[in-house]
Amino acid sequence: MDHCESYAVLGEAMNAKYVCTVLVVLASAISQIGPLFAVDHQPTRQWKPTGAQNLKEGRSPEASYLLHCAGCHGRDGSGAEHAGIPPFPGFIDKFFNDEEGRLYMMHVPGVVSTSLPDYELAGLMNYVVEEWGGNESVTHFTEKEVGYLRSQDVDDVVKLRRSITQRLESEGIEMPNYPWP
Fold first, then answer.
1. Which of 115, 158, 120 is nearest to 141 (CA)?
2. What is the pLDDT of residues 102-116, one digit of tens each?
């Protein structure tokens, strides 16, 4: 092995040592700051089950929201306009009070992809409107209605949302910006 080859081997070893050192430092740093980002999945208020929304499996609607919805809509329901995720506060009750809006809510990507049973999804949706709905009176979802709406075909959920928001806006109802084409 000549000097050039020895330096190459030494250089690879030093790079490997550097990479290992960086990984150890990063792992140590992450282990120290990780708890700062931990999510407390404990409900912030007492939930009392009623009707089809009972606590059959011991998970509150708030916990279901944190597990299935907060990743996109945020813990505060504010959504992310730049990503096409609408906010709940001030708008969600408009969809609850609209027949097509109720159908739409059962076909948004997060709802379609969840394996929640109908009774749990009804409780989750009702939690959302109770938490972020306005002053409007709304009809809560039932297990039976959720099952029925989930069984309905929706070919294009974006087109359905666009149609609903345009119709509601034409009736003078304010809607959040929805930047998807």
1. 120
2. 999 999 988 888 889
51-170 is a CATH 3.40.50.970 domain: no
**Where are the alpha helices (H) located in 34-154, listed in sequence order?**
61-68, 70-73, 92-96, 99-105, 109-112, 118-132, 143-151
**Coarse DSSP helix, strand, coil percentages of the chain, rounded to the nearest 5 percent:** 60, 0, 40
Token pair for residue 47? Answer: 């939930």
Residues 80-84: contacts with CB under 8 Å, at least 24 apart: 81/176, 81/177, 81/179, 82/179, 84/178, 84/179, 84/180
Q: What is the DSSP-derived secondary structure letter of residue 80?
A: B
Q: At what angle do helices 118-132 and 61-68 cross, to 10 degrees?
A: 90
* Cβ pair 128, 95 in contact under 8 A: no
Query: What is the C-alpha separation between 150 and 103, in angstroms, rounded?
Result: 8
**Is residue 141 within 8 Å of 102, Cβ to Cβ?**
yes
- For the chain, what are the domain ranges? 3-37, 51-170
Vertex 42 angle, CA 141 and 85, to 5°: 55
Bridge partners, 85 (sequence order): 80
58: left (phi over 0), alpha (psi -120 to 50) or beta: left
Q: What is the pTM of this model?
A: 0.67
